[in-house]
Design goal:
- It comes from Chryseobacterium populi.
- It is built from eleven helices and six strands.
- α6 runs antiparallel to α7 and α7 packs parallel to α10.
- By secondary structure, it is α/β, with parallel strands linked by helices.
- It is 54% helix and 8% strand.
- About 14% of the residues have low confidence.
- β5 and β6 form a beta hairpin.
Length: 284
């Protein structure tokens, strides 16, 4: 993808700060399971807050290398493009957009939803309206899930998490939480609500890609294919086939590979936020 000259000041880089730590307890298997469950997820507070015996020890401060500094600049650029695009979309629909913060971290860090751990994957925390990014997860995405990882893959993932921020600003997140707390629905029904929530975030990522490219011409050949590759790689059916050898649709929480592709492309093709009612279709 093409870089722009825009940079956001809402990015905090905690890498190399010495505030991280090595995970004690849980083990690699736990981390991989957590990464699978929460990659491209919504509110991870239930897992983050229940880290149990896990603890962290401070690490020595270090200087970031040239590649890490480039990653920071790239994230600052993508954050700025999200801010500009969503500010315009909200204004066009008579609303005011409030930007999310973005935190880059390694190993562990504190979030408004609890302790964020390395390899859990990027996530959005509604409590502090912040996207948390452990960039090392993209290696896992490529090596373990076979996704095509490019700069636009990172941009798509961030756009998905920003989609969860949009849901918080529009009140969707709060409505879903209210349904969950009410306890009136079965696990299968709440799973369908979760799928609708995640697919809507994919739709918003597609809307962002379309509108940002119309303004800045950021897309290059292969970029949309890279986004689709990432979306399909973390579809529930693909993950279940890899982890347990069979698919149980009632346990889906993020949507199938085909659904994730469909809703991202619907957002990208239309560029219209008003066409993203995933709940009506999935909850009938």
């Amino acid at each position: 993808m093409k870089w722009t000259d825009d940079r956001s000041g809402n990015v905090e880089d905690r890498r190399g700060s010495g505030s991280g730590g090595a995970i004690v307890g849980g083990g690699l298997g736990t981390l991989i399971i957590a990464a699978i469950i929460f990659f491209l997820g919504g509110d991870p507070s239930s897992i983050l807050s229940s880290s149990g015996g896990n603890s962290s020890a401070p690490t020595e401060q270090r200087d970031l290398n040239a590649n890490e500094l480039k990653v920071r600049e790239f994230v600052q650029m993508i954050t700025a493009e999200n801010e500009q695009t969503w500010t315009k979309i909200f204004a066009d629909n008579g609303m005011q957009y409030r930007p999310a913060r973005v935190v880059l971290f390694e190993s562990t860090t504190q979030s408004g939803c609890g302790t964020a751990q390395s390899a859990m994957g990027p996530f959005y925390c509604p409590a502090d309206q912040t996207v948390y990014m452990d960039m090392s997860f993209f290696k896992e995405l490529q090596q373990q899930f076979g996704a095509q990882v490019t700069e636009f893959t990172i941009a798509y993932v961030m756009a998905h998490e920003m989609g969860h921020h949009v849901q918080t600003l529009l009140g969707t997140t709060q409505q879903v939480d209210k349904l969950r707390r009410a306890g009136q629905y079965s696990e299968a029904q709440m799973n369908r609500v979760s799928v609708a929530t995640e697919l809507q975030a994919d739709f918003y990522a597609g809307v962002w890609a379309k509108q940002t490219d119309s303004r800045e011409h950021i897309l290059e050949p292969g970029d949309i294919d890279a986004a689709i590759s990432a979306a399909e790689a973390v579809g529930d059916d693909n993950i279940q086939k890899r982890s347990q050898g069979y698919v149980n649709q009632e346990s889906f929480t993020h949507g199938s590979s085909a659904q994730r592709k469909e809703w991202f492309m619907k957002g990208y093709t239309s560029g219209d936020i008003r066409q993203g009612n995933t709940f009506d279709q999935l909850l009938k």
